[in-house]
């Protein structure tokens, strides 16, 4: 077993697996939060340990069976999730955003079944559907060739709003990259699952609900998108691949936004910030991992 590789078959089979659930919220969407938590509490054939993390908020009015963890300030999305994971226990951990929910009462048991049938899996992201019937953004399908939304496949990034991991895999990855604050922490987590000797999986036969919202609504979206692309490369890739990864994304953004010079200017300001500022801890993935990812369909250069 190479350093950082998680033993397969590490999770014991239980009739009622124990699932740690982390829901992160700033308290601004109480109805959505309750809907999501109630969808978790309705899960069958699992034992639950559920915490709602208040990111700069003291959670109140939670359903019975949900504990509260209040953070005195908004520490960012990935750090908030990590804080929640430290106070729950389970064979598996499920991260659910406060505006997401799971419509099936067997969602968690079905996800765990995927891990039990295929111990090479280290993370599962479901298919995401807007419950109102609005068009589902293709960005929710985290692969280059989108194909049919219900088609399952290995992936190399994830939509972070609803993901399930074996707890030992989550611990081996080091958790979410707290330094990012917002954006691209799901790519790093997916890469580190691959580097732990497992595969990240998009499960088209599992469904989570989430409203179709434009991520660019966040004022810092374009800057953090660019800064974190560079940090992602610096934190995870061998030196020779870092400029290739950043350069390929720079070309993609120019092709997308050449009609929006202000947007591009902000993005390139973020790129400069990414190269000039502290990116936090570095864990360079191995060349064996890069080879596995390449054979599976996507080398980490785009």
Characterize the structure shown.
The chain is an alpha/beta fold and 302 residues long. The protein is built from 9 helices and 8 strands. Helix 1 links the parallel strand 1 and strand 2. Helix 6 packs antiparallel against helix 7. The radius of gyration is 19 Å and the shape is globular. The two termini are 29 Å apart.
What is this entry, summarized?
By secondary structure, this protein is an alpha/beta fold. It is 35% helix and 19% strand. A five-stranded mixed sheet has the order 3-2-1-4-7.
List the defining traits of the structure above.
302 residues; alpha/beta; 5-stranded mixed sheet; 3-stranded mixed sheet; 19% strand; transferase
Record the SSE blueprint.
Elements: E1 18-25, H1 30-41, E2 47-55, E3 66-71, H2 77-85, E4 92-97, H3 107-117, E5 121-129, E6 153-155, E7 162-166, H4 167-173, H5 185-195, E8 199-209, H6 221-236, H7 242-257, H8 261-276, H9 287-295
Parallel strand pairs: 1-2, 1-4, 2-3, 5-8
Antiparallel strand pairs: 4-7, 6-8
Helix pairs in contact: 4-5, 6-7, 6-8, 7-8
Protein name: Glycosyltransferase
Organism: Curtobacterium pusillum
Keywords: Glycosyltransferase, Transferase
């Amino acid at each position: 077993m190479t350093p950082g590789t998680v033993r397969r078959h590490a999770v014991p089979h239980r009739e009622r697996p124990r699932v740690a659930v982390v829901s992160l919220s700033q308290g601004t969407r109480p109805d959505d939060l309750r809907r999501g938590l109630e969808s978790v509490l309705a899960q069958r054939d699992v034992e639950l340990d559920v915490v709602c993390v208040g990111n700069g908020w003291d959670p109140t009015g939670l359903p019975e069976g949900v504990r509260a963890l209040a953070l005195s300030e908004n520490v960012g999305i990935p750090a908030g999730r990590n804080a929640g994971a430290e106070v729950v226990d389970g064979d598996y951990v499920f991260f659910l955003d406060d505006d997401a929910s799971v419509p099936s009462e067997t969602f968690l048991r079905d996800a765990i079944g995927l891990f039990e049938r295929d111990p090479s899996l280290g993370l599962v992201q479901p298919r995401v559907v807007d419950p109102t019937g609005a068009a589902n953004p293709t960005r929710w399908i985290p692969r280059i060739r989108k194909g049919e939304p219900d088609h399952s496949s290995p992936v190399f990034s994830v939509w972070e709003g609803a993901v399930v991991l074996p707890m030992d895999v989550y611990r081996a990855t080091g958790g979410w990259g707290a330094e990012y604050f917002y954006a691209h922490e799901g790519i790093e987590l997916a890469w580190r699952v691959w580097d732990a000797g497992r595969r990240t999986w998009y499960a088209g036969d599992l469904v989570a609900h989430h409203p179709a919202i434009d991520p660019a609504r966040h004022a810092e979206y374009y800057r953090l998108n660019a800064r974190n692309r560079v940090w992602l490369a610096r934190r995870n890739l061998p030196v020779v691949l870092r400029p290739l990864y950043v350069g390929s994304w720079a070309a993609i953004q120019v092709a997308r936004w050449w009609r929006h010079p202000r947007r591009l200017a902000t993005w390139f300001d973020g790129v400069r910030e990414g190269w000039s500022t502290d990116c936090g801890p570095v864990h360079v993935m191995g060349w064996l991992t890069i080879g596995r990812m390449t054979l599976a369909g996507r080398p980490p250069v785009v």
